[in-house]
Write a structure and sequence with these properties.
By secondary structure, the protein is an alpha/beta fold. Among the domains are: about 80 residues, Arginyl tRNA synthetase N-terminal domain (Gyrase A, domain 2, 2-Layer Sandwich), CATH 3.30.1360; about 100 residues, no CATH class; about 180 residues, Orthogonal Bundle (Isoleucyl-tRNA Synthetase, Domain 1). The protein has 21 helices and 14 strands. The protein starts with a helix and ends in a 9-residue tail after the last helix. About 40% of the residues are buried. The structure holds one RNA strand.
Length: about 600
Amino acid sequence: MSLESTLRSEIQKAVSVLFNQSIDQLQIQPTNQEFEGSHTLVCFGLSKVTKKNPEETAKSIGEYLLANSTRVSKFNVVKGFLNLTLSDKVWFDVFKDIQANSSFGQLTLTGEEIMIEYSSPNTNKPLHLGHLRNNFLGYSVSEIYKACGYQVHRVQIINDRGIHICKSMAAWKLYGNGETPQSSGIKGDHLVGKYYVEFDKRFKSQVSEAVSKGVGEEEAQKQSPIMREAVEMLQKWEQGDEETLKLWKTMNGWVYDGFNATYKAMGVEFDKLYYESNTYLLGKEEVLKGLESGVFFKKEDGSVWVDLTSDGLDQKVLLRADGTSVYITQDIGTAILRFHDYPKISGQIYTVGNEQEYHFKVLFLILKKLGFKWAEHCFHLSYGMVDLPTGKMKSREGTVVDADDLMAEMIAKAKRQTLELGKTDEMSEEEATQLFEMVGLGALKFFLLKVDPKKRMLFDPNESIQLQGFTGPFIQYTHARIKAIVRKGESMNIRFDSGDFSAVQNLEPAEREVLKVLSLYENKVKEAAREYAPSIIANYAYELAKEYNQFYQNIPIFNATDPAQLAFRIALSKKVADILKKAMALLGIRVPERM
RNA sequence: GCACUCGUAGCUCAAUUGAAUAGAGCAUCUGACUACGGAUCAGAAGGUUCGGGGUUUGAAUCCCUGCGAGUGCACCA
């Protein structure tokens, strides 16, 4: 039983003895730094039950606990707040439990399976900063769910078909002169992206030229030769034209090679990939089934719709008059296919930007109307956009922050700073290279994950990401420094893994604070899963590192004269390093042994 | 026009989901290694939580309203 629930039941007993009342809603919160104690019972709500004012209620409960609980060693009352101080023995026991539990932080298996989708890019341009937030979030949430005892399946849907890729194909065909990643030395996804930009440029100039000759804007767009090429390619693609399919496969292949390199650099993985080119027809079938069963309806022109007005939404088209699919059609098919592929999953998490909130509301409602019970367990992990100081990233205005570039820059920055601090003097080249990567990417990931996913956030390219303060490297540094202590302890043959510290007389306040934070870890992991918020883990890891650093600075560990105390301090340090490592792993961030 | 989201220190973010004097980092200023690693620590300064009403013992948090910002409302994806 956790410390808090033990306290809770003791307080409940106190209330029943003192006031002859039973109560199950108790408000316990961590005590503010400025007051003495670790746990605080908020007594305002209680006074209705006790028929006494909050202050008197707090006082009598405090007195009861002091007399009857072996855990409470002191208390004080401020207004309606009962601040409890627990005995050192309680804290030693907490530590003992953590020590004894070799898988602390890994909750017991639930037997449940869950699917999480993230990344899901288009195949016509390279990944950018927004994808970084998406991937880091999705990956982190999947790790958090694993820690909570779920079996997790990580997937993405790759939007590999449609007019967007045909645009890149058309531009390459007309102006590419056979350029390939090999011939140009350009990474595949960037090369295809180059032709997507080329398309846009040519298209615009063709339109404006036609307009200057007196053609109407809309007509000029339709007439644009390059647009006509792209549209024709799309039609050919759908008809299965061999040459078009060949080009499509080739260019998508370039993109996948590029993406894979980027994913590898990011440190994210997937268990299964879904391709829209394989799933878009499934959606159509499902819609036709739904039409038959009367869930959907057909308009005179032949288009198929769903009516969501009774749910406060609008009508939504699902199949065009010509029978072809729209965006949401393939999402219906993909969702059903996934539950078919993984019959044991209880639900799905979709990591997709908040601009698609309406889309997912509609999607889940449709699935529910089609009679899929699991639709209720589909969740849109909706995250805010990453904005630049100038506003939203826009590829047309060249304000997109490229994922590959940004990662490379961060690693370069980490390298510069590390060399400047002379940290690599005793490292092999390989260890140093790994370190630069760990620190650079750690800073980037932490920067993107420490903010509540729901909120939009700002990234200023001119003010590159810090390596000091509330950052990934701060936590990595704390970890590395503890590891130095552990190494020293080991070299002195100090036994600190026994788990028995009963010989230690008492705790320093700084040690108690560290233990307090340490004891919160598993609850934070649960909370992060419940809220789909890696930011909770990031904030926790920072708090733990900060608390530890205060301890480190105030108490010279190896000055301890009592051998038991020395062993305890090393053990405590080691456990902090352990948890920091685990917490950072939940964020997809590695921590070094030295830095 | 309708719907949703957001507005907290100069800047970037927190605030246990309604509790105590609203907390961190960066930037600014002042201090700390003959001890275990200074990518650290201690301290100062910085706030009408966008404005105005209301509910409550208690509001950054809930309700109403005004202002400001963003997003969505395609037979695009």
